[in-house]
Amino acid sequence: DRLLVNRVEAAPRWEPIARLLAVANPRQQARLTTLARDVACLRLSRPLWARVQSALDDRSAMESAAVMITDPDGSIRLANRAFAGLTGIDPAGSSGARWLQLLVPEEDWPQTGTAKARPLFEAEQGRLVWIKHRHLPAFPVRMFTASLNGQVGCVTVLVNWTRQHKKMEDQSRQERLYRRFFDEDVTGHYVSAPDGRLLECNLAFARIFGFDSVESALKSNLRQLHVTGESGDQFFDLLRRNGRLIHHESPMRRVDGRQIHVIQNVTGSLADSGELKEISGYLFDNTERHEVEARVRQSQKMETVGRLAGGIAHDFNNLLLAIQGYATLLEDHVEDKPDGREAVQQILKAADRAATLTRQLLAFSRRQVLQPTELNLNESIQSLSPLLQRLLGENIDLVAQLEANLWPVHADGGRIEEALVNLCSNARDAMPRGGRLNLSTRNTRLQDTWFSFHDGPPPGDYVELTVQDNGVGMSDEVKAHLFEPFYTTKAQGKGTGLGLPTVYGIVKQSGGEIQVYSSEGEGTTFKILLPRLHAGREVPPPETNGGGKDSWRILVVEDEPAVRLLVKKILERKGHRVIEASSGSEALSQMEQEGADLDLVLTDLVMPGLSGRELWEHLRVRWPNLPVIYMSGYTEDAVVKHGVLKEKVSFLQKPFKPDALLEKLQEVMQPV
Q1: Are 22 and 155 in contact (CB under 8 A)?
Q2: How many structural domains is the chain composed of?
Q3: CA dihedral 368, 372, 376, 377 (to 10 degrees)
């Protein structure tokens, strides 16, 4: 009861059909092989078509395979129930329907970029096509075909590919999202081989390390981006031991040589042998935050050192005032004794040098008294240039590049010139074989965005002064201690270590900012920013109180006995009457008794108990016209706001010489 045609004759045709049907259901391969052999032997015998139809509907054999047999023109001759379930075409009424009418044209597929349709039976096996019948939405299937012979047609097996296609679409969408995230993320992503060769990276990674493109970055080696070969080896060894590094911070180097600080999370894939197979990670540039934190730490350290230096300078100023004052008084008694006069002069010279050191300490600690005025830095540089050229010597070229229409600043001209001389002196020492020193000025505006990452003065208009040399430069270690008092790289006896700290204090006290850029062998650049002076900030001269007298009754308030006695002697030698007080409260008691006849109060500013400022606040309530002169080794309260004299305030900086005291007294009591 088998097919009537010789199966040996049909063998070349049934074998590809058997393989085709086995694709749809490999568990039923034996039964499908028999079916394929029968199909391959078909001629035009209708009883045999019926038997094939019955076999195609055998659920156990064809449970997942939608099978149809078509004529050469594409008309459906036979189809199983699975075909009906897939396409919606009733097998009983499908005879004569054209299979090609079910195909959705490629231009209407929910995909783009596919090739144009080729003849149906010339397509590759497993080709993805889209079909649609009546009300059903289009869906994808995989199509497998095998030709029977030119007269009979072909067998086609369809496999519903909707679920697999959706899965592939989801995977493709995830891949696109990942690729977009990978390429557009501001974090640097990378994959490297164990030897450091970069296999993949995104644009952010390339930009962090200074490459102009991803392609150029992929030509580099991850080990070469570490600061040293040793640090690169340590990184890979650490990753090999731990398998993963979380929040790992390390210094690295850009392609232009600039050092940066990165934080990265890295995972290493390990082989069974424990060796690295592949490394993947992501990192971000933490350089700006690292620099800001370093500057904050440095600022805090400088503030602590400055507070200590200011306190020491204040105490020394009291001692120096007594030494200088009494030495000056002693000088009058040894005029006819050469040896004695020489000894006194040496005492005064030593005291002057000590006073200079304490003044520099006060400048560093920002506790010196400034007397700012409207200042044009161009004019200061031009007037100072002859002195600077002599200071630098003949083998150093001094070049000034000054911006026209430079904004004015509000600063103490003498102190700014002192800072400039100190910077030029350091530049000279950095160019022992000669070189070039550039001084330049320009107007600049600092924006809010710059200060989101930097510690410094507030945004606004500034005048920038740049001092640049092409000398030996500085190491990072030297730069870290550059502004610390008494730190010096010069030979013993060649420097005090207070030049640059003085510059630092002057700039900071003037409301400015100083920055240094230097590398060994690359020279050094100092940039100073000073706030622009806007109209209406002129400081008027202090009011004075004449008296028309040659001698005055003066209340002297000083908690240091040696200083109080010295001031009393100086004033009494000039015929003035002096009332002493060792504290503010004692001074108030004295004023209750002597106030009506007093001409002036000369008081220390910083004292235990009632300060000089608080004393003046009490005095001016009852005697508003009573003049006052403040004296102090340093000042940091409301009378001298940030070291800058306020209106109507007369101040005498300790240590002062007798002549300076008398001149200040004359200035207040009998102005010109």
Answers
A1: no
A2: 5
A3: 10
Strand 513-518 and strand 435-446: the pairing is unpaired
Question: For residues 612 and 588, is the Cβ–Cβ distance under 8 A?
Answer: no
Coil vs helix vs strand at 231:
helix
Q: Are strands 524-531 and 513-518 parallel, antiparallel or unpaired?
A: antiparallel
Same domain, yes or no: 360 and 377: no
Q: Residue 78: which of 33, 123, 120, 48 has the closest Cα? A: 48
Cα 587 from Cα 506, distance rounded (Å)? 34
Provide the pLDDT for residue 416.
87
Same-domain check for residues 657 and 570? yes
Strands 524-531 and 460-469: antiparallel
> Are 25 and 158 members of one domain?
yes
Contact 409, 441 (CB under 8 A): no
Taking only the tens place, the pLDDT of each residue in 48-94 is 445 455 545 544 445 567 888 777 777 777 777 788 777 777 766 65
Within-domain flag for 175: no
Handedness of CA 622, 625, 626, 631 (dihedral sign): positive
Q: Residue 381 sits in which domain range?
A: 373-531
Residue 536 lies in a domain: no
Q: Is the CB of residue 235 less than 8 Å from the CB of residue 226?
A: yes
**Does a structural domain hold residue 259?**
yes
Cα–Cα distance list, 397 to 403, 414, 429 (Å): 19, 24, 14
154 shares a domain with 244: no
Domain final residue, candidates 260, 285, 310: 285
**Which CATH number covers residue 278?**
3.30.450.20
For residue 188, the SS3 value is strand
Are 527 and 614 found together in one domain? no
Of 8, 18, 62, 9, the C-alpha closest to 39 is 18
42 with 87, same domain: the answer is: yes
Task: Give the H/E segment covering residue 26.
Answer: none
d(CA 14, CA 39): 7
**pLDDT tens profile 565-622:** 888 888 988 889 888 899 988 888 877 776 567 788 899 887 888 888 888 888 878 7
Q: For residue 178, is it within any domain?
A: no
How crowded is residue 223: how many other Cβ atoms within 10 Å of its Cβ? Answer: 17
Instruction: Output the pTM of the full model.
Output: 0.42
Decide if 327 contacts 278 (C-beta within 8 A). Answer: no
Count the Cβ atoms, other than its own, within 10 Å of residue 451: 13
One-letter amino acid for residue 618 of the chain: H
C-alpha span between 552 and 261 (Å, rounded) = 67
